[in-house]
């Protein structure tokens, strides 16, 4: 069952939360050995929480909109009493003494956390593998990656182990796994989902969210967790009307929709481009939207993104003994090396590049209301990595596979990936980007596309 379906069954007393959780735990036990999605499972705690929910229903009370829904938690999100290694050997054995605001709100809404899912070290890769936990695999093709950095949650949801899995998105880490696993991955406007109480980060590109099998599941989860949080100065107020009940009320007829396979600078695999453009055309024709030219050429902001991200990684590394830094992933180590030479000019240049990006997108959204792109520029690559060094016959750097996702982390726009079809053996996603604070437009567009082209889960 999807999350909404299951929650309504539990709330009505037609399904026991304990039964639903026990089934999820059974699926994890049977399936996860081949996928490596989970790094910690708390069966005892999950069953105890499920019994509490069943008792609440028996008293005639409502346990909440996520009643009895098994929830996978990405290991970058803290859960008090659970391991909190963040995929790093530097923190092996650490236990969280607090719970992330997002996770706490989901639990308060009735969700049942069953365990932690794998992330690359500190979430700094688009495939999910680490020295600490090994390799996580794509349920559609186990030799390939489910993406990253929320690959563990994506594998758990796509394989049917759980209906919901939390994730982070600093450069595409919700949308990329959603694309490769045939899921819905939504990154809201910056601040839409609070990141308290102890989020460490100065780059202002990190977003929290969830991976699901349906847009409605995503909307319900957002309604349960968004809203201001005194621990997160960037957190936004909850919308005046719930996302879930508003999904079908948005009139998309006449909406100005632009399509760009590359944002004017990013090479895209021809098979991916063809599959996703077909999905974009189907969306425009099926909703009565109006296609307009994108006329959008963005500059590559990979260097700016890296510069702005260096202090965040340095915060995790600076207290580590020097003799232990050799054990971290080379990508993470390179961030640490860059921190030692970072200067004010580089930071100013990065902020100016971000300002130019925001201005270019502001000009674009004066011409269109919704921007459609591929969610990933290349098909899924080997589960062990590395990330692609070439796309469409052109050499690319570390940012080539993220070229159409991370710009919207820098700018803070809401963006969602929905399944478009298959390319290279796994699913591939259609990304929909709306104006900042118009999260409902992106969600409603995704829901309309989902109705036009239901995806077999």
TrEMBL record:
Keywords: Ligase, Transferase. It is an enzyme of class 6 (ligase). Signal peptide: none annotated. Its EC number is 6.3.5.6, 6.3.5.7. It comes from the Bacteria. SUPFAM superfamilies: Amidase signature (AS) enzymes. Gene3D superfamilies: Amidase signature (AS) domain (3.90.1300.10). Pfam families: Amidase. Residues 19-439 form the Amidase domain. GO terms for molecular function: asparaginyl-tRNA synthase (glutamine-hydrolyzing) activity; glutaminyl-tRNA synthase (glutamine-hydrolyzing) activity; transferase activity. InterPro entries: Amidase, Amidase_CS, Amidase_dom, AS_sf. Belongs to the amidase family. This is Aspartyl-tRNA(Asn)/glutamyl-tRNA(Gln) amidotransferase subunit A. It comes from Actinomadura citrea.
């Amino acid at each position: 069952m999807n999350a909404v379906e299951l929650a309504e069954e539990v709330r009505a007393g037609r399904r026991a939360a304990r039964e639903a959780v026990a089934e999820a735990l059974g699926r994890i036990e049977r399936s996860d050995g081949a996928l490596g999605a989970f790094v910690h499972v708390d069966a005892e705690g999950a069953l105890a929480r499920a019994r509490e929910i069943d008792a609440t229903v028996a008293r005639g009370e409502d346990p909440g909109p996520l009643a009895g829904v098994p929830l996978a938690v990405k290991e970058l999100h803290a859960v008090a009493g659970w391991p909190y290694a963040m995929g790093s050997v530097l923190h092996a054995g650490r236990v969280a003494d607090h719970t992330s605001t997002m996770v706490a709100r989901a639990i308060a809404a009735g969700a049942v956390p069953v365990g932690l899912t794998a992330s690359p070290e500190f979430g700094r890769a688009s495939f999910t593998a680490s020295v600490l936990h090994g390799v996580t695999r794509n349920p559609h093709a186990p030799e390939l990656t489910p993406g990253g950095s929320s690959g563990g949650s994506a594998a758990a949801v796509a394989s049917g182990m759980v209906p919901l899995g939390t994730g982070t998105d600093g450069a595409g880490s919700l949308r990329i796994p959603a694309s490769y696993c045939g899921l819905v991955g939504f990154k809201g406007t910056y601040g839409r989902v609070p990141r308290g109480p102890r989020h460490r980060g100065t780059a202002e590109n990190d977003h929290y969210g969830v991976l699901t099998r349906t847009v409605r599941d995503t909307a319900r989860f957002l309604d349960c967790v968004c809203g201001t949080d005194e621990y997160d100065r960037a957190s936004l107020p909850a919308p005046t009307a719930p996302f879930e009940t508003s999904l079908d009320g948005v009139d998309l007829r006449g909406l100005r929709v632009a399509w760009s396979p590359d944002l004017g600078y990013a090479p895209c695999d021809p098979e991916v481009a063809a599959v996703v453009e077909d999905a974009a055309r189907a969306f425009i024709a099926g909703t009565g939207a109006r296609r307009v030219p994108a006329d959008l050429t963005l500059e590559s902001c990979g260097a700016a993104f890296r510069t702005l991200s260096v202090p965040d990684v340095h915060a995790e590394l600076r207290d580590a003994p020097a003799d232990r830094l050799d054990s971290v992933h080379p990508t993470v180590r390179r961030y640490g090396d860059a921190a030692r030479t970072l200067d004010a000019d580089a930071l100013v240049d990065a902020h100016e590049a971000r300002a130019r990006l925001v201005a270019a997108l502001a000009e674009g959204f004066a011409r269109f209301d919704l921007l459609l792109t591929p969610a990933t520029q290349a098909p899924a690559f080997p589960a062990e990595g590395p990330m692609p060094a070439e796309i469409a016959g052109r050499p690319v750097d570390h940012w080539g596979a993220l070229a159409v996702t991370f710009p919207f982390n820098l700018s803070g726009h809401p963006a969602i990936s929905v399944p478009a079809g298959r390319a290279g053996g796994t699913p591939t996603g259609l990304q929909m980007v709306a104006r900042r604070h118009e999260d409902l437009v992106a969600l409603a567009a995704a829901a309309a596309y989902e109705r036009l082209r239901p995806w077999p889960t």
